[in-house]
Amino acid sequence: MRKILALVCLAACSQPVDDKMAVDAASTDADVVFEAKDVVLPDADVVFDAKDVVLDAKDVVFADADVVLDAKDVVLADADVVFDAKDVNFADADVPDAVADVPDSVADVPDDAEADIAADVTVVNTKAGCSDGTREGFGDAQIFPTIAACGGAWDQPGIFNMPAQCNRAGGNDGVNAAGVGCTVSDLCATGWHVCYGKDDVVFRNADGCAGVMTGATPPVFFTTQMSSTGSFMCASGANATNDLFGCGNLGCDFTSNPTVKTMCAPLGLSSHDLCKGLRNDKGCGDWCNHLGKYPGAPNSWDCGSDGDKEALNVVKSHPEQQGGVLCCLD
Asked: What DSSP element (H or E) covers 262?
């Protein structure tokens, strides 16, 4: 009965009515006044003598026993409608009780909603630069729109041109925060890459590493794909695999040497031999801000056992601590 009521009322209410206009209806018990654009049909017994109601029902959809009406296409032609309307109340409400079960007939909507949510997440992550949607340095994306510092972990060694292998699910807030099966690239969002080196960084941020500690929790080191041929002499190429170079406040600041400072600028921090500048167990000197200066902090960076090939062997654990990678917009 309610669905018949919904059909007729939706059709009637689809016709333009001035705010003060009353539409006459023949009623056995009461006059029915149509006054508001929205219809409330409370739980009431409403009787229709609808034998003379003519419906152009080509746009009426019946799905799963629920009736969905595109009311603008329902036509009442020369219809005599009889209402036992003493309990019918037309008031300013947005959701007619009579069509409360309509959502059942559009069960496909959640699939579309999931697609929209996924698209929204991709947009958010792309703007953040980090695959998990959160930055751990260069924290203000409006000030630093093309460079981001992304914390996290990975267990696939190396920093050079590593393709994403865990569907970019890494990052300290990612669904694969432990970085199982992940590379350094899995910490960067789609459309971003681990910054290639000094030129890439200064191109994305004219002030280089300045601003990297915005939003960061020290101590942190964020590596690029830059390495050296030894002795902090930044370089690229097959022989440049010695140490890591990046931004942050953890590691060895080599900029007191003007020669290597110029070669690596704007990068000013290095992992040093076997990442001892980032660890607490390798006997790094006091000139480095190494992890030994932070009692109780576990070692997160592991550069392997070859003192000339740290850039090929580095992995990182403890995704919430001690940084990760610098990501640059493609």
From this structure: helix 258-264
Q: Do residues 117 and 142 lie in contact, with contact meaning Cβ atoms separated by under 8 Å?
A: no
CA 67, CA 117: separation in Å to the nearest integer?
A: 28
Question: Does residue 35 have a pLDDT over 70?
Answer: no
| pTM confidence score | 0.65
C-alpha pair distances (Å), 278 with each of 160, 227, 243, 322: 19, 15, 11, 8
Q: Are 80 and 24 in contact (CB under 8 A)?
A: no
Between these two residues, 251 and 54, which has the higher pLDDT value? 251
Q: Determine the pLDDT at residue 125.
A: 73
Q: Which residue, chain included where needed, has tokens 């006054």?
A: 35
DSSP 202: H
Q: What are the residues facing 324 on neighbouring strands? A: 151, 222
* Residues 137-163: tens digit of each pLDDT: 999 999 999 999 999 999 999 999 999
**At residue 230, does pLDDT exceed 80?**
yes
Q: What average pLDDT score do residues 88-94 get?
A: 43
- Residue 289 CA to residue 279 CA, distance in Å, equals 10
* Distance from C-alpha of 252 to C-alpha of 310, rounded to nearest angstrom: 15
Is 284:306 a contact under the CB 8 Å cutoff? no
Q: Who's near 155: CB < 8 A, 6+ residues apart?
A: 179, 180, 181, 182, 315, 317
Q: Determine contact, residues 203/183, Cβ cutoff 8 Å.
A: no
114: buried, middle or exposed (CB in 10 Å: 19+, 13-18, 0-12)? exposed
Give the torsion sign (CA, 95, 97, 103, 105).
negative
The continuous run of DSSP H or E covering 127 comes out as: helix 109-128
The full length of the chain comes to 330
Residue 210, token pair as written in the block: 């300045």
Amino acid at 141: A
Rounded CA gap, 5 and 83, in Å?
Answer: 10
Each residue of 289-327: pLDDT tens digit? 999 999 999 999 999 999 999 999 999 999 999 999 999
Buried (b) or exposed (e) across 72-95, using 16+ Cβ within 10 A? eebebeeeebbbbbeebebeeeee
DSSP reduced 3-state for 293: helix
